[in-house]
Amino acid sequence: MAETPELFNEIAHHYDLWSSLLSAAGIRAWHQAAVERLRLTPGLRVLDVGCGTGTVTRTMAAAVGPQGQVTGLDPSAGMLDQARREPLPPGAAPVRWVQGFGEELPFPDSSFDRVTAQFSLRNMRDWRRGLAEMVRVLKPGGLLAVLDLVQPTTTLGALAMRALEGVTRPLSVPKLEPYRWLGRSLLHAATGAELTAAMAAVAGSEVATTTHWLGDLVLLAVVRRAAVPLPGPAPRRTPRAVWATDGSLTALRAGAWIRDHLAPGMEVHVVTVCPPPPDDAQVAATDRVAWLRHRDASLEVLPGDRFTVVPVLLDGQPGPRLVEYVRRVEAELLVVGRKARTRGARELLGDVAAFAFRHASCPVLAVDGP
């Protein structure tokens, strides 16, 4: 099965060109806005997580000057090779290029004044762990800026998502097929509300600024790490029989409700439904790996010594397959997460919770996301 670093290795030499084309050159303005929000000054230490070909990394190196230090980290060797080929601007800080994963940053605590992840967070195996790692290496009082595609909850954002899928799906030329992951990856992305809630939780402070483009498909969020660590959130609990999860923060909230409110000893079926795969075999394999990770991450929510946990992976349209499974196992309760989408977004992207309310053979509990 293909991993995202391998997909990016294949497109490293033309990544910048096609990113600009697919975004109608909007990506340049979005990157520039993110760099401006970091408030870079000479002498700062900066980390670029998922630096790719280093376009933004070099811009930040110029901003912090020769007294500063900049590190670009990426899991793709091909991307880093491309980054090393490009010269730094005159008067820029030295740049250290490091191959590694955002979920396992090879740096000591409180190492950087600024950290950013731009269009890389949703490609991580575990983006929540990646956020925690970025905050760990950020100095107290430092700024974290995340720029990425998110699952839309507005009608305009949903239209933009469908347009992106329409542009990337026909890319069948072998050298361009990996770009089809761009549209598919949104099925595994957080919503803007989920992402900002997670950033605030790990940083210990409210997200300072958020900016959206293309409705709410593109999000820029900036948070400052709290100077004094705040106590962690109180443990949550969650419901029973069948838990439908896509691994999102909203779905994990539903799982937490089960954990916290259902009686010990109950049987909980943790069900993830993989939508029909894309035609491209490599993208389909990468997509399958992502769904398996979502299922496995969800399993960690439920303690094995409290419940009998039954992991289930199904294929097909999520709503009908879920309802069919609930009926077959004679579930007493179905628990789902419900993302805060507009009516238009629900019609364009589907609404599993609404489908379950109409067709499930048992009571349905919907837990709202952030």
From TrEMBL:
<dbReference type="InterPro" id="IPR014729">
    <property type="entry name" value="Rossmann-like_a/b/a_fold"/>
</dbReference>
<keyword id="KW-0808">Transferase</keyword>
<feature type="domain" description="UspA">
    <location>
        <begin position="242"/>
        <end position="367"/>
    </location>
</feature>
<protein>
    <submittedName>
        <fullName>Usp domain-containing protein</fullName>
    </submittedName>
</protein>
<keyword id="KW-0949">S-adenosyl-L-methionine</keyword>
<dbReference type="GO" id="GO:0008168">
    <property type="term" value="F:methyltransferase activity"/>
</dbReference>
<dbReference type="GO" id="GO:0032259">
    <property type="term" value="P:methylation"/>
</dbReference>
<dbReference type="InterPro" id="IPR004033">
    <property type="entry name" value="UbiE/COQ5_MeTrFase"/>
</dbReference>
<comment type="similarity">
    <text>Belongs to the universal stress protein A family.</text>
</comment>
<dbReference type="InterPro" id="IPR006016">
    <property type="entry name" value="UspA"/>
</dbReference>
<dbReference type="Pfam" id="PF01209">
    <property type="entry name" value="Ubie_methyltran"/>
</dbReference>
<dbReference type="InterPro" id="IPR029063">
    <property type="entry name" value="SAM-dependent_MTases_sf"/>
</dbReference>
<dbReference type="InterPro" id="IPR006015">
    <property type="entry name" value="Universal_stress_UspA"/>
</dbReference>
<dbReference type="Pfam" id="PF00582">
    <property type="entry name" value="Usp"/>
</dbReference>
<keyword id="KW-0489">Methyltransferase</keyword>
